[in-house]
User: Fold this.
Amino acid sequence: MLNSMQASEGNTGKPPIPPAEPRPRPIVMLTIALSVALCLFQMYTAGINPLGLFYQRPIHLGFILMITFLVFPVFGPNRRLAPLGALVDTIFFAAAIVSGFYIVVFLDDIIRRAGFWTTTDIAVGIIATITLLEASRRAVGIGITIIGVAFIVYAMAGPRGPLPWLGEIMPGILAHRGYGIDRIAAVLYLGQEGIFGLPLGVAATYVFTFVLFGAVLEVTGAGRFFIDISYALTGRRQGGPAKAAVLASAAMGSISGSTIANVVTSGPFTIPLMKRLGYKPSQAGGIEAAASTGGQIMPPLMGAGAFLIAEYTSIPYLQIVLVSIFPAFLYFLTVYLFVHIIAVKQNLRGLPASELPAVREVMKGGWHFLVPLALLVYLLIVGISPLRVGFWAIISVVAIAVLKYSYDWLRNRPGDETRLPIGEALKAGALMLVTACRLGARNALTVSIACAIGGIIVGVIGLTGLGLKFSGLMMTFSGGNIILALILVMLASLILGFGLPVTAAYIVLVILVGPALTTEFGIPLLIVHLAVFWYSQDSNVTPPVALAAFAASAVARSPVMETSVQAWKYAKGLYIIPMFMVFNPEIIVGGPVEIVLWNGALALTGTIAFVAVLEGFMFTRLHPAFRPVLLAGGIGCLSPYFAAEAAGMAAILGILGYNFLRAVQDNKVPPQPQSS
Assistant:
C-alpha cells in the first residue's frame, strides 16, 4: 500500500543522485571477501576470543583501510585516469596491509625495544599515517583530513621541531617546544594514545558489532517493520505521516545509530507521504532530517556515543543508556510537537484507514524482530559485556530469521512460489548474510576512519599539552560565565561540524573543552560528555553544512538551504535539552526521588514552553503578549533558585491551560454561515 502511494507521487523515493560507476568484478569480489573476513574476525573477537588492543585494533584498521581503497578509487569514476588511478590504488592498498599488520606480526619485537625504535618502525609509522589521511580524504571528506594534517603540523611547530618558524608566529598560549617527525610517528603509530588509541578501540569493538547488528536487522526486513508499525499507530492522526517519520526514525535510530542511514532508509517512505498530505517539500525533508538526527542520541546505540562516553568516563554503558532515555524522549517530543502544530495550523489530515497497514497484520508479520531487541535489553540489564551482548544479538537475529523462514517454508505447500527448493533457500540465506556483511563493513568505514583520525588529534593534544592551554583560553573568553562557555561550545561544535562527522567532532570537543567544563565550572563529568555529544549533532541540521538535511532534500526534491533551515528549526531540542541537563543535573546524575521528579517536570514543561514560543501556538494560537512570558517561564525552569523555577512552572502551566480552554471553547462553537 505504501509503495503504491509512493508511486503516485511520481517519486521512487531514492535521491536523484547519478549512479556510481561500477567497479571491476575482481575488485567487487575482493571487497566482498574482505568484508566477510572483517565481520567474521569481529564476531570471533566479540564472542569467542577477545584479543589485546595491539591485535584487535590494527587488524580492524587494516581491513577497513583495504576496503576503503577498493570502494573509493583515487580519481573517482574518471575512466580516462584509470591506469594511473589503478597504480595509485594498488600502492595504497599495499600500504594499508603494511599499516594494519606490521604491528601484529612484529609485536613482540616492538615491545622489547619500546622507546628505541628502529628506522623501519618509524618508516612504517609514517606510511600508516599518510595512508590513514588518504583513506580519510576518500571516505570521510577533506575537512577532517585537513584538521588531522593541521594537528600534525602543529606538533612540528616549535624550536625543537622541523618547523620552528611556525612556532614563532603562533600565539603564545599555543606555543610548545616542537617535536621531530620520528617522535610524532612513534607517538601516533606505536603508542596507545595515537591512531590505535581509545576512539579506534571503541569503533573496532562495540561500534562495529552493533553496526553489524543493525545491518543484519535491515537485510532481514526489520527496517520496513518499524516503518509500517509507525504508520499503523499514527497514520490516521492529524499530520500522521510526519508523526510516523518521528517514530520510525526513533525506532530505526535505536538500532542503526546513523543519521544519514535513517534519512535514506525511512525518508523514501515518509517524505512522499508528507508531501501528498500537504506538507511543503522543504518541510517534509526538514522533519525527516530532524527526526533522523535523533537516531544518534536514541539508546541503546547512540551512534558511537554511548560506548565512547562509557570509555572516557569509566561509567557503565548500561547506566549511560538509562540516563539518556529521558533526554531522548524530550528531543523526539519537541520534533513531534513541531509536526503536530504544523499539521493543525495548515489543517493537514491523516491517511484513511484503508491506505494504512493494520497493527495486527504488521505485528503478525514482523513480531519476531522484537525478540533480538528484547534479548539485547535483557542481557544488558543482567550485566553482560556490551561487546558480548552485540555478539549474541546478531546470533539471535540470524537464528530467528532462519526459524521464521523454516516455519513459513514448512507451512506452504510444495509448488508454492514462495517455497523455494532447499538448495535455493540456503543460497538465498547465505547471500543475505553476505549482503549484511557488505552493508556492515561499508557503514563502519566512516566511523572507524574518523575515530582513527581522532586518535591523531588526541595524540597530538597529549604530546603538546594543548588541552590544558585550550581550557585556559576558554575561561578567558567566557569570563567564568557558564552560559557563555556553553555558547562557545555550541559555536565550536558547529564550526567543527562543517568538516567533521559527529563522532570525530565529539572526540575533539570533549578533549579540548571537557576538562574546563568539569574543573572550572563544576559540571558533572557525565553531563559534560552528554552535552558535548548532543551539541556535536548540530552539523546534521544546521546551515550552511547540514548533512542530514542535504540527504533529505535530495529525497524531497526541495531546495537544499530551505530544507536545512526547516531541519534546524525542528531540531531545536539539540540546543535546549543540554541546557536542562546542565542546570537540572538531577535528571542525569540522580538524587532524592522528589528532586529528580521535580527537575524532570521542569525539563518537560520548559521544553514544551520553548516549542510554543518558537511556533506561537499550543492548542491554539498564542496571544502575542504570552510569548515573552512563556520564554521567561522557560528560562525560569533553568534557574538554580526554587522560587524562579516555581514561578516559571506556574506561568507556563497557566498560559498553556488558558490556551487549552480557549481551544476547547472554539471547537464547541459551530462555524457561522457566510453572508451572501
About this structure: Strands lie at 617-618, 620-621. The radius of gyration is 26 Å. The chain has a mean pLDDT of 81. Residues 414 and 421 are 9 Å apart (CA to CA).
